[in-house]
Amino acid sequence: MSNTLVKKILVVDDDENIHDIINLIFEEEHYQIKGVLDACDLEATIADFLPDIILLDILIGKYDGRDICNKLKHNPKTAYLPVILLSAMNMDNLCCSPNDTIGKPFDIMDLRQKVKASLNKSS
Prior knowledge:
The protein has 123 residues and is α/β, with parallel strands linked by helices. It has one domain (8-122): Response regulator (Rossmann fold). Helices cover 36% and strands 23% of the residues. The protein has four helices and seven strands, in the order E-H-E-H-E-E-E-H-E-E-H. The N and C termini lie close together (9 Å). The model has no long low-confidence stretch (mean pLDDT 90).
């Protein structure tokens, strides 16, 4: 697990604007944010960055965030990581088990609350 004083958020979304918005939302709370636009080397990114939580878009170029979520939750090395799925899509019948979901466009306070709640549960 990473340093308890600085929580790390990994943002996996192919929209750079989402990365910028999430950085702005969490900058005053001193979270360390790393954004990736592609899920191709996600396992290596997770191993290097050691996030405390992952914000994962459902549609990431040629990747499906639901499949990625399932892989993360079934891998003993990453199963402990809270995953919050972000999407503008309908999130009924996801076929995966994220810790939470957030619709796009998202409410800033809702995002903050869900991130904090997921981090508190995983501590």
